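ok here's Large ribosomal subunit protein uL4, seq below lol
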Amino acid sequence: MAKVSVYNMEGKEVETMELDDAVFGVEVNEHLVHMAVVQQLANNRQGTQKAKTRSEVRGGGRKPWRQKGTGHARQGSTRAPQWTGGGVVFAPTPRDYSFKLNKKEKRAALKSALSSRVAENKFVVVDELKFDAIKTKDFAKVMSNLGVEKALVVINDNDTNVVMSAKNIPTVKTASTSTINVYDILKYNTVVVTKDAVNTIQEVYA
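and the structure came out like this:
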């Protein structure tokens, strides 16, 4: 089992903690990690883009000039794609970009992402994150004490003071143990996790 240091909010090491190899020590499957990221980005796409084809644009019902004898190329409508105001060739239409991954694949991808962060020493465990009030300055100070800048902060429960204190820091994102995902784990340089959150993750995914 991998051992990691547990820090307090002042950035001082208070204890060590063993991580379950079934979650934080698995062999990284890059293909599944890639698929999980692609799936999340695809599922986030709105797919609402739309342009009109020549059958949908207004007007152009009359033939602009007779077929022969004018010196012009033959034209059947002023709404053909080559005309200004005409329809779009192969116009995009609303569609659903989402696709599914099996539950086992999702779990394996998440474990791989967590294991890669532990292996790279970019996994920081904090004994607790508690604030008496919503203060961005206090949260920024904790991040500075831990020597962390761009971080995903995982907490066990949705503590309003913690979430709101981190909200105005552009390089920090908070997540609960039930909402963590592969994309966010890889997007941020460091994963900061409370001790309670680590235990919950190990219970759920071990």
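fwiw Residues 47-96 form one domain. kinda neat tbh
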